[in-house]
Amino acid sequence: MSEPMLALAGVHTHIGQYHILQGVDLVVPRGELTVLLGRNGAGKTTTLRTIMGLWHASRGALLFDGNDVTRAATPDISCAGIAYVPENMGIFSDLTVRENLLLAARAGEPDTARLEWIFGFFPALKKFWNQAAGTLSGGQKQMLAIARAIVEPRKLLLVDEPTKGLAPAIIQSLITAFRELKAMETTILLVEQNFSFVKSLGDTVAVMDDGRIVHSGRMDELAEDRELQQKLLGLSLDTHQ
Amino acid sequence: MMLHRLLSGDFPRSRILALALLAIVAALALAPFLFPGARALNVAATICVFVVLVASYDLLLGYTGIVSFAHTMFYGIGAYGIGLTLHSVGPTWGAVFMGLTIALLLSLALALVIGLFSLRVKAIFYAMITLAVASAFAVLASQLSDFTGGEDGRTFGVPELLRPGFRLVEAEVFGTAINGKLITYYLVFFSALALFLLLLRVVNSPFGRVLQAIRENDFRAEALGYRTVVYRTLANCLSAVVATLAGALMALWLRYAGPQTTLSFTIMMDILLIVVIGGMGTLYGAVVGAALFILAQNYLQALMKQGSDALVAVPLLANLLHPDRWLLWLGVLFVLSVYFFPTGIVGKLRNLKRS
Amino acid sequence: MTTTTPTATADAELPRLRLDTPPLLVLPILALLALPLVGSFPTWVTLTVAGLAMGMMIFIMASGLTLVFGLMDVLNFGHGAFVSVGAFTATLVLLPMQGWMQADSVLLNLSALGLAIALAMLVTGALGWAFERIIVMPVYGQHLKQILITMGGMIVAEQMIHVVWGPDQIPLPLPTSFRGVILVGDAAVEKYRLIAVAVGLVVFAAMFLVLNRTKVGLLIRAGVENGEMVEALGYRIRRLFVGVFVAGSALAGLGGVLWGLYKETLTATMGGDIMVLVFIVIIIGGLGSVGGCFIGALLVALVANYTGFLAPKIALVSNILLMVAILLWRPQGLYPVAKR
Ligand SMILES: Nc1ncnc2c1ncn2[C@@H]1O[C@H](COP(=O)(O)OP(=O)(O)OP(=O)(O)O)[C@@H](O)[C@H]1O
Ligand SMILES: [Mg+2]
């Protein structure tokens, strides 16, 4: 295999006086969907924010596509080819759907063919094209947030808990979207707590706890090994079956 | 031990600072005997009042992290409360206490309302709202001239005991007459001392420590179960009450209450400057800062005048040194100290020891 | 509801429409209520125009400030300095060009004024840039220091005006063709007030177009709501912020010139004095909202003019009362800006 798209080596992050990430080692292979699991407060969001440069690592190194981005500023990291869907979606509610996507397209106007492709699995966006994003429902906002990240091709996609608080029907359309992206060999790092949602999507998986990666391996192995699931993720996951 | 209780266990923690404080307190305590002359005594009394005024402001700014521009409003309420009551009722002690009570109640009510109204939101919100309210108050005070005396303010008589003509004993002590002026001075001095020690007690009490926790991280303090709004509002009220008392003392000393000496924005700036230069978040900073500042204000301006006169030939430079441009240099000093000495003189002195 | 979202998730937010009408209605309602109270129609017209003119000028001064706050959470207490500096800078052109100003020719008057405004905006814009670099940048994210430092910067700027222009007031007469009144029916309306209204409308329209029709404008609006996300999309919010800061300072300079001509005398503290109104306006409007700032400015000015006529004593505190009333109705201001 070629070198990984993204590699974190011994990353520590402090927020104020709190030591949140305590040596994270994480590898995101090229062209694969990597799932990052972990209970609440494990440090998943902090990991993504550190990758984006929204927090800075106090120790360790981040390597993106062969370049050291440990100290880089957020806009530079973004321009280097990472798209980010934050946990709170980061929608600009005062702007219309169109304007939200316009800002995400650095080339100027979004590419029409690519837009049609996105509308294919997120038709609501077409319907509410000129409506203020703040008036969308929670699921539609999530679609917009993802659409914004993929309106132009990027090397790596970071997505933070997209299914949080969403109804099954909408989760289904998210699954479709991720399948489409996988078919195009997009590299994705997906943070999730909903194991059943990612079980079929993920290629590789990493599990976090207390600011460290406590397990990493192939998703199909974890999906079959119920004992390991129990050990890493606790009982709660069973309820998703 | 006694000292420990008096200072609430909050020692200067720097030898130079301790010496400076001792010198200031001693000089103020003996001012009438050490520095006879009306001007010097006036400077000493002003320092006493400003120590209290600034210390009460530091309770807000330094200990609670609130920026208020309404501190002079409370100060002015104290001064006007005494001034207007004595002016209309006559120079009796009854009137003094009545004026004080009215002023305290008004301050408390205003502080409570403003606090509850705007402390829920951001620090910045509070700064803006107090600025607006204080300026409206100043405009009111100068416009309602039938009541307040307008721009001229009100002069008034004080109770017999405090009048310059009054003699407690006929003989002079160390060449100084024991008259009403001297009694007023000691009234101001001991009230200021008592109020300062009270504030010292407050900031070193559990209440004071909660305030500091809120200043450091209000989100966390809230998470720990402290109702930050309540604590902030309480601090606001306490600070307002002490400022009101300071205003009352100043009015008694000057036998005058007017917008220029109490409500003007310049005084607000003076307070801010003293807090920052003395050291935010340490009450001793108020003592050192006020003493230095008031001395400089009274004696340095004369120096500037000399400089300006000497430079008449150089147009712009002469303007820069004109005594009225005093505020320019203060402003520069202020900006520089916020950047480079955020802990002020006291912080510097304490660090000196450590390194 | 769409076909893809059969469930009603998070619909609580639906009522937040783009055009929030109640605040828009407040202005006409206020004006109509004032009519019977004032009693005479011509007086009412005069008062209303005066209010609108004052409101427009305050809006011009306040708009930059509210955006600067929205973008970076920076509240510049020294903003008033730009107002004063703008007005005083204009005298550098207007006083030597008295000839053109007093000439009975609209063209000459306008050229002198245009030149003065251009210079004032240039100088205040540059000053804003320096102010941002030296005063504001080192204290990003530290509210306490920000307030103190910008206040200090304001004092220094005011004092420097004294140093440069001397301690006295400077008279600034209006150009000939802007003096006097126009009769609208029985109502006398000062010409200059109409001009101020026109300039205010132009500035508002321009700002509206930029904010809604250009990518930079969209970025500013997006940045006000969520600056982190703007950065995560690859834009440097700092550059955006500096741009807005400079533009806002230049606008404050423009407002200063207009305000100075309105008052016909200049004092170094004129900017600091008007800041109280400006703060009330941006609080009423909702911190960060340009539309709210516009309505808030007109509201404050109209209320000030009506009460000034009806009950001069109350007028002294009418702004505070108005602010309290609005905040009781909408605690975050007329148009609260959604924040992260
Ligand atoms: N701004 C902050 N200040 C202080 N602590 C923070 C901050 N943000 C996060 N934390 C702490 O960092 C830890 C990790 O948080 P993080 O958001 O990364 O967890 P997470 O794995 O994303 O959790 P969740 O599944 O709930 O989203 C938590 O203990 C949290 O309390
Ligand atoms: Mg998270």
Explain what you see.
The complex is a heterotrimer of chains A (241), B (355) and C (340). Chain A has 241 residues and is α/β, with parallel strands linked by helices. Chain A is built from ten helices and ten strands. Chain A has helices at 44-52, 74-80, 97-104, 112-121, 123-127, 138-150, 168-183, 195-199, 219-224, 226-233, and strands at residues 6-15, 18-28, 33-38, 57-64, 67-68, 82-85, 156-160, 187-191, 204-209, 212-218. In chain A, the strands form two sheets. A six-stranded mixed β-sheet of chain A has the order 6-7-8-3-9-10, with helices on both faces. In chain A, a hairpin with a 2-residue loop joins strand 4 (57-64) and strand 5. Chain A is globular, with a radius of gyration of 17 Å. Residues 235-241 of chain A have low confidence and may be disordered. Chain C has 340 residues and is mostly helical. Chain C has one domain. Helix content of chain C is 72%, strand content 4%. In chain C, helix 2 (41-72) crosses helix 8 (215-225), helix 5 crosses helix 10 and helix 12 packs antiparallel against helix 13. Residues 1-17 of chain C have low confidence and may be disordered. The B-C interface holds B 61, 65, 67, 117, 121-125, 127-129, 131-133, 135-136, 139-140, 143-144, 265, 269, 272, 276, 316, 319-320, 324-325, 327-328, 330-332, 334-335, 338-339, 342 and C 69, 75, 77, 135, 138-139, 143-145, 147-149, 151-153, 155-156, 159-160, 162-164, 166-167, 272, 275-276, 279-280, 283, 313, 316-317, 319-320, 323-324, 327, 331. Adenosine-5'-triphosphate is lined by residues 15-16, 18, 20, 38, 40-46, 87, 193 of chain A.
